Structure formats: structure tokens, C-alpha cells
Amino acid sequence: MSADFEYKLGKYAEVIVKSGLNLQPGQRLVIGVPLYESMGVPIELAPLVRRIASEAYKAGARYVDVICNDDQLTLARFQ
């Protein structure tokens, strides 16, 4: 990824944590709360999720829990 993309991704994550979530020190953040048991954040969003988690810890999050979903792993389970 380019340096410009990395910079913008970081700024986007910062806005999500500070403004979108208004995360407060000591709070726990769960990313990808499943609507159904097998759903979570698509694995393709890992770079953004990592940046959001990093920003959350900078903002004082107690713990960041990420629930991921990988369609290929789900397919393997059913096969």
C-alpha cells in the first residue's frame, strides 16, 4: 500500500474512533458483532480493522475484540 493510502487509512480510523464511536478511556470495543453466529467482519477489511484497533487503544480502550468472517473457511467447514 502506498504511503498516501496508509495515511488516509489512519485518518479514517481516527475519525471512526473519536467521532463515530466517541470511544472513552476504559471502554471495550467489539468490532464485527455478529448478527448471526457465523457473521463478522470480512477478512478483506483487516487493514482497516487493525488501524481502528490501534486508534482505539491510543484513545484508551481497555480491550478491542475483533470477530472475523472468512467465506473460504466457512465453505471449508460445510464441505
Question: Could you walk me through the main structural features you see in this protein, from its secondary elements to its overall organization?
Answer:
With 79 residues, this protein is an alpha/beta fold. The protein has one domain: Thermophilic metalloprotease (M29) (Thermophilic metalloprotease-like). Helix content is 49%, strand content 15%. It is built from 3 helices and 4 strands; from the N terminus they run αββαββα. The strands form 2 sheets. It has a two-stranded parallel sheet. It has a two-stranded parallel sheet with strand order 2-4. Helix 1 crosses helix 2. It is flat. The model has no long low-confidence stretch (mean pLDDT 90).
Shape: flat
Summed up, the domain count is 1
The assigned CATH architecture is 3-Layer(aba) Sandwich
Amino- and carboxy-terminal Cα gap:
34 Å
The SSE string, one letter per element, is HEEHEEH
Largest sheet: 2 strands, parallel
Q: How large is the count of helical segments?
A: 3
Our Rg estimate from Cα atoms comes to 14 Å
The CATH topology annotation reads as: Thermophilic metalloprotease-like
Tell me the structural class.
Answer: alpha/beta
User: DSSP strand (E) fraction?
Assistant: 15-25%
Q: Show unreliable segments.
A: none
The side-by-side strand order for the widest beta sheet comes to: 1-3
